[in-house]
Amino acid sequence: MISDKIRDILNEQINKEFNSAYLYLSMSAYFSEIGLYGFSHWTKVQSKEEIDHGLILYNYILGRKSQVHLAQIQMPVFEMNGPIEVFEQIYQHERSITSAIDSVANLSEGECDLATRNFIDWYLREQVEEEASVSRIISKLKAFGAEKSALYLIDRELQTREYSEAVY
To answer: What is the pLDDT of residues 115-163, one digit of tens each?
Structure first.
């Protein structure tokens, strides 16, 4: 069984992951509306991954004989002014998720919950990958995105992203 503090912060993280999924799905719709179907595909895949991340936490809490408390998912609020600005917002969002996961790691250390501390390492590694992936896309957009032909090529590249279920 995990402590109430650990249970609560893990439940908060579930909400953050599902909120992220909702945010990415909203971005996917935006990209479809402006005809950037590769960008739409990339953000839709990201949405599915965030749901997986939430479900892994969900299963972990239940597996530790604790309670899952699902909270309301908030409406996504962000400015949609083209791919560069959206991806910069994605990067900031991912950094906030990294910070939240750091808080889970710190609390699990403070509570001497080594099982949770070990479990959360997977999320820490995942966040490093996610920030790096988004950073690479931003770099390409800043270097080439103003050129319509380059934007087309980036869009085609993002269309090739394949979803694979996140497994802990």
So the answer is: 999 999 999 999 999 999 999 999 999 998 778 999 999 999 999 999 9
Phi-psi region of 82 (alpha: psi -120 to 50; beta: other; left: phi over 0): left
Q: Which of 113, 116, 132, 131 is nearest to 168 (CA)?
A: 116
User: For 29-79, what is each residue's pLDDT tens digit?
Assistant: 999 999 999 999 999 999 999 999 999 999 999 999 999 999 999 998 877
Give Cα 149 distance to the centre of its chain: 29
Cβ–Cβ under 8 Å, residues 68 and 58? yes
CB atoms within 10 A of CB 42: 27
Model-level pTM?
A: 0.94
In whole angstroms, give the CA distance from residue 58 to residue 65: 11
Query: 3.40.50.300, 1.10.3430.10, 1.10.1660.10, 1.20.1260.10: which CATH number matches 4-159?
Result: 1.20.1260.10
The one-character DSSP state at 75 is: P
DSSP 8-state code for residue 73? P
